[in-house]
Write a structure and sequence with these properties.
Number of strands: 2
Order of helices and strands: HHEEHHHHH
Number of helices: 7
Shape: elongated
Radius of gyration: 24 Å
Largest sheet: 2 strands, antiparallel
Structural class: mainly alpha
Oligomer: single chain
Length: 146
């Protein structure tokens, strides 16, 4: 059977709390471990699998997406590529939204008005948002007029 790890040893080797490991097991991210005298015993490969979960979580994948990734580990299955493609498109969209927000905030900081609510650009942007424009559209609209 080889070396088997208790949940405490797995937690120690990975830096993940035992409660999180139990939850991940219940959620389907980790396979149910063998039990010896009622106690969980993980194979050494569980350390790498926890590392995979941490990597994907830190890259922005949800636990549901990570579960799908783990399930698509068959060598002939290309499902993980589709998961990566979708996540990359989602991240590109979030980055674009963050860049728009950053530009709007930078313009706000550069505003010469002491009271931002006295700025025609600021109030025009609010009006554009309230009329259904996105932040990007509202920002473009107020800065396209001289």
């Amino acid at each position: 059977m080889g070396e088997q790890l208790t949940i405490g040893e797995l937690a120690s080797r990975t830096g993940v709390a035992t409660s999180a490991l139990r939850y991940w097991e219940e959620f389907g991210l980790l396979p149910a471990p063998a039990r010896i005298s009622g106690r969980r015993r993980y194979p050494p490969s569980a350390v790498e699998l926890v590392g995979v979960v941490l990597l994907l979580r830190d890259a922005g994948f949800t636990l549901r997406e990570i579960r799908a990734f783990v399930a698509s580990r068959a060598p002939s299955d290309d499902g993980w590529r589709e998961l990566y493609r979708r996540k990359l498109a989602e991240l590109d969209q979030r980055i674009a939204q963050a860049q728009v927000a950053r530009t709007a905030i930078a313009h706000g900081l550069a505003c010469p008005h002491e009271d931002l609510f006295a700025c025609a650009n600021f109030t025009g942007g609010i009006a554009a948002l309230l009329s259904g424009s996105s932040l990007e559209e509202a920002h473009d609209e107020i800065h396209s007029h001289p």
